[in-house]
Amino acid sequence: MKHNDFYLKILENNKAWVEEKLAINPNYFKRLSERQTPPVLWIGCSDSRVPANEIIGAEPGDVFVHRNIANMVIHSDMNMLSVLDYAVNILKVTNIIVCGHYGCGGVLAAMKNESYGLIDNWIRHIKTVYRLHNVELDQIDDEVVRFNRFVELNVQEQVYDLAKTSIVQGAWARQQDLSIHGWVYGLNSGYVTDLEVNVTNNQDLDEVYQLRFKKI
Description:
Keywords: Lyase, Metal-binding, Zinc
Strand order of the largest sheet: 2-1-3-4-5
Organism: Myroides albus
Order of helices and strands: HHEHEHEHHHHHEE
Radius of gyration: 20 Å
Number of strands: 5
EC number: 4.2.1.1
Binding site for Zn(2+): 45, 47, 101, 104
Family: Belongs to the beta-class carbonic anhydrase family.
CATH architecture of the largest domain: 3-Layer(aba) Sandwich
């Protein structure tokens, strides 16, 4: 089987990266393989232009990552829930960052009525965010400004949806140090905008979402 040039190039890039790391520290990979204790769970978009580690200058082992289209937190998504459970209950991360990005194709699709096929079922969850904030969004005449604001509001809702999970609330009930933050990354600038949407306990949620755990 003949591989294309790009495929062969990335294999060579891996070899060069390994050699670079070993030249700095001969025990780099030995240390990395022994355990992972990341302080951060990153829930981001699958967009190839938004690499979690590089954006924040983190090393391998610093960030536990889950990515999907439009950085969604969907309570029936067992993939996301499994990552969240492992990060919170096993790795004991202290920060969860939901990072969206301006120019997100999933969010843009949710602003339209076109059918894109199977992905329509995923985009429907993003449309729900628009419905929740339609009064504010529909008052914005400039489409780019409205699009950017929708990206921000989508991140905000995912932060609160994380806080509503039994996994996160269980950690808070045990007095575990855990904070959730909402960010948006600028593709055309490289800078992260902290939306100052930060949740550290379930008191920030409507009472109906505040779970009470039985003491064992």
